[in-house]
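Table S2 (text version). Query chain:
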Amino acid sequence: MVIRILLISGLVAVASAAVKLQEMYSWNVLDWNYPDQYSKQQALQTGGLIPQNALPVGIERWRNKLFVSVPRWQPGIPATLNYIPLDAPYEPSPKLTPYPSFKGNELGNCESGLTTVYRVKADKCDRLWVLDVGTYGYDPNVTNVCPYSLNVYDLNTDQRIRRYVFRPEDIVSTTFIANIALDEGLTCDDTFAYFSDELGYGLIAYSWEQNKSWRFSHSYFMPDPLVGDFNIAGLNFQWGAEGIFGITTSPMGPDGFRTLYFSPLSSYTEFAVSTRILRDESKVTGSYRDFKVVGSRGRDTHTTAKVMDSTGVQLYSLIDQNAIGCWNSAFTLNPQNTAVADKDDVGLVFPSDVKIDEERNVWVISDRMPVFLESELNYSDINFRIYVAPLDKLIQGTVCEPQAPKTFPNFAPQTPLYNPRLETISQIPPQIFLPSTSNRGSKTPFSTLHSQNVIPKVSNSLIFSKQPSQPYFISSSQSGIANKNPWWLKDYQL
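Corresponding C-alpha cell output:
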C-alpha cells in the first residue's frame, strides 16, 4: 500500500528547521456528511446537529481511513466515531463520515450504537478496537446512558464482530476511561487490550481469546499532588485529580512479552510493567513490585497520549508546551534524553492524540480542549488541526534517533522464560548489555528478536511546509490564525 501526499503547486514553502509536522486538515468548526441536505436541515432544526458543541479528541489511521472521535460532552453530536476517506478528493476542512453509520452511532442504543468514544486503535489483523464509555455530558453533569463496552469492528467489512461489556468488578464509581493500548501476540487470537481508568486509578486488561477482563490497582496510577496546576493557551486551571492516562506498549521483548508504559495526566513521571504480569489474571494481587518507575520527563511535561514504534522510540504529547516530545527508550528516561520533536504555539495548542501508522507516519490532532472546556472557542479562528509527518523526519537531529543497534528496556526476568507462544520462533537470542555512552545513561538490555509483530519500515515521500505561527492566548482575538497548506491525496493503492 502506498500513499503519496503532494503539495498543490504554487505554494511557497517557509523554511524552518524546527517545523516538521505538516498540517493536513483544519477546521473552525466540525461538520458531518449527511445523506442529503434535507436530513441535515432537519438535524439542525431539531438540535441533532449543533456544530459548535463538537470537539475532536482522538485519531487513528488504517489504510484509506483516518478515524476521528468526537465525545458527546454536549448535545448535537450526530456521531461519536467518524472517519475521513484519505482516497477521496482533497478538502482542507472535510466533513466527518460516521463509522460504521449514523445508526451505528445512535445515542443511548446500548446494544448496537455508540454513545461516546474517545480513543480507538487499529491492529494488524484489520480490527478496530473501540471503547464506548456510554456517557453523555461532561463533569459534573454526566449521565451514564450505557455501560462501558468494548466494540471491535472488522475493518474489511465494516461490521462489528464483538461487543464486550466490562464486568461490575472492573468499574468503580469514579471510573473514566479514555485510552487504549494493544498487546498483539503471534496470532490474531493472542491479543490483549489495556484500558487506563483515569479517575478510578485502575488498569483494565482484556483477553480476546478468553473474552474476559480483569482490573489492576496500583499507587503508580494516581496523580502527583505537586504538579496538578496547568497553564495552557493563557488559561490557568487545576486538573489535580487526573490519574493514569497515556499508555502504550513497547516492541516484543526477548521473552515474548511487551512492556506497557504509562503515566498519570497530572504527573511528569513515567512508569512501566511487563505484559507478562498484565496477561495473567492471577497477578491482579501480589504484583506491586512488578510495576517499575522508569524516570521523569522533567518540568512541564503533562501528557495525554503516547505511542511507541517498532524501534522503541516513544512519542508523546506535551500539552504544556504546545509540542510533541520524544524519548528513545534504549536510554535512561531523564530530561537530557528527551527532546521536543516539533512545536507550534498556535497549531499545537493541546495536542490531544498522537499515533504512528504502519507506514511509520506520525499523526497528531490538536483541539484547544482547555479553551473549549474552561472558556469559549472563537469560531472565526482555526480551532482543530490534524498533522502528519514521517517518524524519521520528526525525530531527525534529536537524541531520540535510533542508534545502531536498536534497543529497548525490558522489565521481564533477565533469563528468558519458556513461553509456548514463542514456539514458532526458532531461537530466542540472549540479552546483551550495551556500555553507557557519554550522556545517555546506564546499561540497557539489547534484543535482536525479530518477529512478525515488528512493522517493517516503509519509505515515505512527504513534503513539508508550514507557515510560522504566533503564540495563541485565549484573551487574544485572532481571525484566521494560520494559513492552511492544502494537500492533495492521489494514487492511493491498496
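Notes on Table S2: Confidence is low (pLDDT under 50) at residues 1-18, 412-494. The radius of gyration is 22 Å.
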